[in-house]
Amino acid sequence: MDREDLYQVIVERTPSRNLINHMLAVEAIMRGLAVHFHEDVEKWGLAGLVHDIDYGETKDKPNMHSIVGSEQLHLMGVPEDICYAVRVHNALHGLPRKSMMDKALYAADPLSGLIVACALIRPEKKLAQLDTDFVMVRFKEKRFALEQTGIRCLLVRRWDSICTSLLRSA
């Protein structure tokens, strides 16, 4: 399946436009990381796009989230390395993130949430109005992090280990 086919599957299966937007945001982040690390932009983008394909079915079963999705993707003929990256982006499974793509997806998922949260506190509520400095200032503010339902704590844990690992692998 190509990107357009997978996008159509996501639109059909995903119960909320916000979740589709999140998946598109993670796709964009993954594409940017692929460029930065000289990796396959299309493959990394697909991993970001489909990473929450099962969320509509598993939102109340976090221990099944990403397991179901990776199995669905496998049945659709999606490359195994994308299926594995989807499977290991859920930390609850305790599975090792082996490839650069696995690690990048694990980090990109909550990063998209931080970026959206930053946009939502701006008066214009537009991503286009954000810059790196604004996001980094908010990231460092403990009060902002508490108001954003633990996003900062999750990112700090992930970025502390994942970014170090990504940079060592580059």
Q: Would you tell me the overall average pLDDT?
A: 85
* Low-confidence blocks of residues: 146-154
| Main pleated-sheet profile | none
N- and C-termini, Cα separation: 29 Å
Number of strands: 0
CATH overall fold name: Hypothetical protein af1432
> CATH class, please?
Mainly Alpha
CATH homologous superfamily assignment: Hypothetical protein af1432
Approximately how much helix is present in the residues? over 70%
Gyration radius, to the nearest Å? 16 Å
Give me the strand/helix succession.
HHHHHHHHHH
The CATH architecture assignment turns out to be: Orthogonal Bundle
Beta-strand share of residues: under 5%
Please tell me the total number of domains.
1
Q: Count of helices? A: 10
Q: Helices and strands: which structural class? A: mainly alpha
Shape call: globular
Briefly, what is this?
With 170 residues, the chain is mostly helical. It has helices at 3-13, 17-36, 41-50, 55-58, 67-75, 80-88, 100-121, 132-140, 142-147, 151-169. Helix 3 crosses helix 6, helix 6 (80-88) packs across helix 7 (100-121) and helix 7 packs antiparallel against helix 10.
How does this structure look, described?
- The chain is mostly helical.
- The protein has a single domain (3-169), classed as Hypothetical protein af1432.
- Helix content is 70%, strand content 0%.
- It is built from ten helices and no strands.
- It has helices spanning 3-13, 17-36, 41-50, 55-58, 67-75, 80-88, 100-121, 132-140, 142-147, 151-169.
- The longest helix is centred in the middle third of the chain and has 22 residues, at 100-121.
- The two termini are 29 Å apart.
- Residues 146-154 have low confidence and may be disordered.
